[in-house]
Predict the 3D structure of the following.
Amino acid sequence: MSIKPVPPTAPKAQRWRRFASPMYFQGIAQKISTLALCLAMVLALIACVYGLWWAPIDAVQGHSYRIMFLHVPCSWVAMIIYVAMAFWSVIYIVWRTQTSILMVRAMVPTGTMICALSLLTGAIWGKPTWGTYWVWDARLTSMLLLLFLYLGLMALLQSIRSEARANLVAALWSIVGVFNVPIIYFSVRWWNTLHQGASISVSRGISIHSDMLHALVLMSLALWAYAIAMILKRARLLVLNKYAHTAWAQALVLNSKE
């Protein structure tokens, strides 16, 4: 089923409102997710070559620092996904658009996986650096709390039978939990921690080799593209499942089977 375009002469409010339409959203999401997934694979391959072979050996940590190219992007993406969940939750509470809360639901599994991967790679990196896999450091503890926030939200969404109540709880949980994100980011400044400070900072500039920076940026972009692809693919499935009774959703399912 084709989507009728909004005329350029239509009011601004009407042009923006089309993004809340489930039918319009799933069409856009399908195109973006496919492109993002292809981009993620290309960028990840280039980043691996750059990080594993091209980037120089660290003078202090040797080759063990190379896990940074996965650990740091995972940490960044896990935090920003939670911020995005809070953003969509605010939109849901204010305008009650179903697409926005479905985006929150779609982000939770991806955010949980990436947050867990951040903690796992951090533990692997911590063993040769600190001599132990885990310390109750401010940065690590607040990151662990972020994982618990993700897991708690997943559990709530599974346990609450009322969809309307589950949506409201998910939105409030995301908004309240987002206050942990600045704690994670500023923990190395506020407290005396084992975790090293940021290598890329607005105030202090960049303190790593340019080749390391290039590998880090490429892997960050690859992980971002992957996260966007997975979130949008999951959001499309949630939209189609919710509106399975409508003619446009049934037409999409039939067209995909042909």
Summary: The beta strands are 200-201, 205-206. Residues 142 and 184 are 5 Å apart (CA to CA). The first strand starts at residue 200 and ends at 201. The longest helix spans residues 22-54.
